[in-house]
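Translate sequence into structure tokens.
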Amino acid sequence: MGGCDCSNLPCDHFSDNELDELVRNSKIYDFVPNNAPEYDLIPSNVHNGSPPPLVEEEDFCLEPPEVEELKARLWSEACNFISSGQAEWKASIYHLSYKYPWDHGTKNCEWISDIGKLEPPGKQCKHRVRFVKGFVRSLDYDPPETLPMRLRARFKLYDGSCVICVSLWDDSLEKRAISGGVIRENCVLVLYDVPVLFKNQGVPRYRLSIGYSNILAVFN
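Result follows.
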């Protein structure tokens, strides 16, 4: 897209006070300060195969080299896990947990930024995503006592494109867990058949709601 040349706009026809009044009364002024920070979850242009991020979404400083090296290795292992077909094989085990497997209506959203493309703003609904992977950030294993007892953890999943909030529930009574491993900060999760909750209260919001059965692999 081309840029906008503002050099020919007749700004000299207005005083500074008049320009301030025009900006305050415009819709753009209302939108930017109130809503722009909320659009972290809006899809960005991220292509498949991009390298893992060097700078986290909440940090402005690089992490120690050994941490970056570890994260790059974990990300590469997760990518190979999906591309090699191992993920599909473990997904077939996942479907054995169901009497009537869900075999339709899933979306391919390996990148978190793709999740926001599933549904336009203005609706509240749910989809399922086949594969999505990301780094675990802001891990909280201590949910408030007022929350349901089977809520095991909350965290953010970050893949270099966007961040999305995740709730982990204990579904071991209904479904089979198909992967071992401990979920830690900066580990990489590969998730499968994940319910994505959409809420629209002025700004679209997306959240993943997963059980242990949705975790195909943990790399740490």
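Note: The longest helix spans residues 65-83.
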